[in-house]
Amino acid sequence: MLTHTQKKTAESIVNIFETSEVLGNYGQVTLIPGDTGHLTFGRSQTTLGSGNLYKLLKRYCDHSGARFGERLEPYLPRCKRKDTELDEDVKLHNVLRASADDVVMRDTQDEFFDQEYWQPAAAAADKLGLVSPLSVAVVYDSFVHGSWIRMRDRTIGKVGTVAEAGEQRWVQTYVKTRRAWLAGHSRGDLRATVYRMDAFQRLIENDQWQLSLPLVVRDKEITETTLSATPPGCYVGPQPGTRMLALQQPLPRGLDVRLVQLGLSDRGIDIRADGIFGSASQRCVRQYQASNGLPVTGVADIDLIAQLTG
């Protein structure tokens, strides 16, 4: 059995692979050319093409406390039928980014990824006789990334079972086998992910089978502190209307900025709801003001904020 910290460390390694963040990026929206998964979202990048994006959003919308449930619910039928036009739906992308500010969405993602990926991976590792935290992390990565069974069987074909080869030799062979498969894949987006196996190989070379902290994976520090931090890009405040928003240094960031951006997006303004009030946000506020007969200042005052977020 892995300790709580070992489990979180294993998950964080895959988070780094998926979104370059130790805790994952709960609001990350990604489109990779050629990716058959199409629109991907969240901490472990669940995809439209797999049907898991629908499952995640349905679970979130079914929660009575889902702050963005009413905005996301109309998209559920299209997600269910895997409508690839959603790849270019800017309004949906902005709602997905904003939903990461809701602790209900973050908890939903944690529960979903645990049930869909971690638990099956841990069971598969246990069945094979893989017990070290690093071994389980390797299996978990393959459940998230794909093709676990194919690579497992190729490895058994090379060195036999875990009992026959020994755990460390078996995992080393698996990592090399999977790297070769990724490096020679016909899809460029998969060839580009050989870094995952390179990172595991470095952990193996450093004898990090227990995933003892601190660790550095792809230049990201995994420590007790980083594992307990607030997830990146998630805002809990300030609340809308508690300040005016204008272009200044440092750039205003926060929940109020995100909700103003989301309000502009709802009204047809082409804006990215990233929670940062920069020059693009100023331009979009000016555009909205001009089209609605308001003084064109580029400043979102309290009245305008109420109008956009009410």
Keywords:
elongated, three-stranded antiparallel beta sheet, 310 residues, mainly alpha
What would you note in describing this structure?
This protein is mostly helical. It is 55% helix and 4% strand. The chain contains 16 helices and five strands. The strands form two sheets. A three-stranded antiparallel beta sheet has the order 1-2-3. Helix 5 packs antiparallel against helix 14. The radius of gyration is 22 Å and the shape is elongated.
Overview in brief:
With 310 residues, the protein is mostly helical.
Cα gyration radius (Å): 22 Å
**Helix residue percentage:** 40-55%
End-to-end Cα distance, whole Å, is 49 Å
Determine the number of helices (DSSP H or I, runs of at least 4 residues). Answer: 16
